[in-house]
Design brief:
The chain has about 425 residues and is mainly α. Helices cover about 80% and strands about 0% of the residues. The protein has one domain: Na+/H+ antiporter like fold (Up-down Bundle), CATH 1.20.1530. The longest helix has about 30 residues. The protein is globular and about 65 Å long. The chain starts with a helix and ends with a helix.
Length: about 425
């Protein structure tokens, strides 16, 4: 794609985000990100209807070609994700996370593994009944990509929802860390399903363990190292514009290094964001610098979220819509919610012997475990196969339901089960 074509494409997406955002603010009054998804979905389905009535227009093919040019997976996973995770972690109170570290760590590891297994078994059983014959390895892949809650979607909704601080810390902390764990698990399971590790070598149990440790531990260490270097640089000066630039360089440079070193970029960004947002803002920034850094990342977070949720709404054009894919998408919703309920209940009931949990924690964590663009991006990254369309349809159905239905009703669930703060 030429530079001018790329600019035109970006200009179109940004313009649509602004127009749809204005329409939502003026008339629908939905939360900004949810409004963008709803409007984009409405426009997408209208476009599909027009294309079905007037096939000569070739509207669906044209939009699909545009989406291919954007490449949702690469755009999110190697472009936007680092910025969004850093911006989200920047505003999270580390003390709150550390005080609930056992619950967060358990939900982000044991919970993910449990959910992945439950989703895989249920999906394998249900697809077998319908004659789809999806290999169990690919059911595990679906479980891995749909089980992690999306920090981008979760943090966007938490900004507009009245959740008790202790519960908010668990929801935010889990979503920030299980995202990185989920991506690593997805990478391993795709390698198993396709018969290699991405470098032409077969995976062994030892190789799987090494890959997981390299990605997770390596990402953590890289995030700490990058955050510390940026912290020392900012502590030595007091110039807000330059310090904003340093945080930008931290994100871009660290994420690029993570990709080259084959360690987890998402985990590195979360760790770096927590380091700068807590240690850095207290000890390395003046009040003026802190204000500029926070406003810059809040604005960038809002812009990128707008573009991401708009793109999610338009990705319906990437689906091959048939009665079977619609059935798959509908059935996947209660399946994933059920697995989420069990994977939240088991750790909380177990830890409840030693720790106190907010009343209503299980229903709020279950219903507030939103899925978003990361799940769609991972599904789109799957290599062509007979089951790819089925996995994509199930993923998209869960994500849209999660953002629109769960996102619009999570506050009611909080009020009904927890009450107001």
């Amino acid at each position: 794609m030429s530079l001018s074509s790329l600019f035109n494409l970006i200009a179109l997406v940004v313009t649509l985000a602004a127009v749809f955002g204005w329409v939502n603010h003026k008339w629908f009054r939905l939360p900004h990100t949810i409004g963008l998804v709803v409007i984009a979905l409405g426009v997408s389905f209208a476009g599909l209807l027009v294309d079905a009535l007037v096939p000569a227009l070739g509207l669906q093919g044209m939009v699909r070609a545009t989406l291919t040019d954007i490449d949702f997976h690469d755009t999110l996973m190697t472009g936007m994700l680092g910025f969004l995770l850093f911006a989200g972690a920047l505003h999270v109170d580390l003390d709150h996370l550390l005080s609930r570290r056992s619950a967060i760590a358990t939900l982000a590891t044991v919970g993910i593994l449990l959910s992945t297994g439950l989703v895989a078994v249920a999906a394998y059983f249900l697809t077998g009944l319908t004659g789809l014959d999806v290999p169990f390895a690919y059911c595990l892949v679906f479980g891995a990509l749909i089980s992690p809650t999306d920090p981008i979607a979760v943090l966007a909704i938490l900004k507009q929802t009245d959740v008790p601080a202790s519960l908010e810390a668990k929801i935010a902390g889990e979503s920030l860390f299980n995202d990185g764990v989920g991506v690593v698990l997805f990478t391993i399971l795709v390698a198993i399903a396709t018969g290699g590790d991405g470098h032409g070598a077969a995976l062994t149990p030892g190789g799987i363990a090494q890959l997981f440790l390299t990605e997770a531990v390596g990402g953590t260490l890289l995030g700490l190292a990058g955050g510390y270097v940026a912290y020392r640089a900012m502590r030595a000066i007091d110039e807000h514009n330059l310090e904003v630039l340093i945080t930008l360089a931290l994100v871009m440079g660290t994420y690029a290094l993570a990709l080259r070193a084959h360690v987890s970029g998402p985990i590195a960004m979360v760790v770096a964001g927590l380091f700068i947002g807590n240690h850095g803002t207290r000890l390395a920034m003046s009040a003026s610098t802190r204000d500029h850094v926070e406003k810059f990342w809040s604005l960038l977070d809002e812009i990128l979220n707008s573009l991401l949720f708009l793109a999610i709404g338009f990705e319906v054009f990437a689906l091959t819509i048939t009665p079977m894919t619609i059935w798959i998408a509908v059935v996947a919703i209660p399946l994933v919610l059920g697995a989420r309920f069990i994977s939240v209940s088991v750790p909380i009931q177990t830890l409840g012997r030693w720790h106190d949990f907010t009343p209503g924690a299980i229903p709020v964590l279950t219903w507030g475990g939103l899925r978003g663009g990361i799940s769609v991006a991972l599904a789109l990254s799957l290599p062509p196969s007979q089951v790819r369309d089925s996995i994509l349809a199930a993923t998209y159905g869960v994500v849209v339901f999660s953002i629109v239905v769960q996102g619009l009703t999570i506050e009611r669930v909080v009020r009904a089960t927890v009450g107001r703060r």
